[in-house]
Amino acid sequence: MKYWLLLVSLSLPFHAAAQSFPDQIVVGKHSLERVGQARYSILWKRITDVALYVDRQQALPDGRDILDPDYRKYLTIEYGLSVSAERFRKMTREQLAEHWSEDVLAANREAIDTFCNWLGAVEAGDRYAVYWLPDSGLTLELNGVAQGTLTDPAGAAVILSIWLGKAAISESQRDELLAQWQQGR
Length: 185
Description:
Number of strands: 8
Distance between the termini: 37 Å
Shape: globular
Structural class: alpha+beta
Largest sheet: 8 strands, antiparallel
Strand content: 25-35%
Radius of gyration: 15 Å
Order of helices and strands: HEEEEEHHHEEEHH
């Protein structure tokens, strides 16, 4: 069933996603610029619109790995449908278990559990922001309200892989964001 959903999922071009993402955001003392935007849909149902922000003043990470713990990144996810907290937690754990070894999951269990406990239900139009700043950690916000911050870089990278790495829920959306990020450099 999961592979069928991947076959019908679409990542629409930059201009097709939500137009309400600002060009620039400020987080703490960091100014970040939007470098990518994409939509994830199944058939004609909008699941998420996302925008990726980075600090263009920072050096590209080694190997162009956006999950590098020295590289600042910010992802905004706007939902096109309602999702329960339980569904978010289950989907997160399943994606990580499918793509990471048990050793990696065990080493990062505390970070994963903490992050999953922060996940709350969303309604259509709600926004999560998840961002990594090396000087403060990984923060999750729901509609502008911080849910918590993790300071463990390894755990943060595993969690961010749900959107920007090998555990991406939408591979096409991830690929579109990363292509735009690399083209804009």
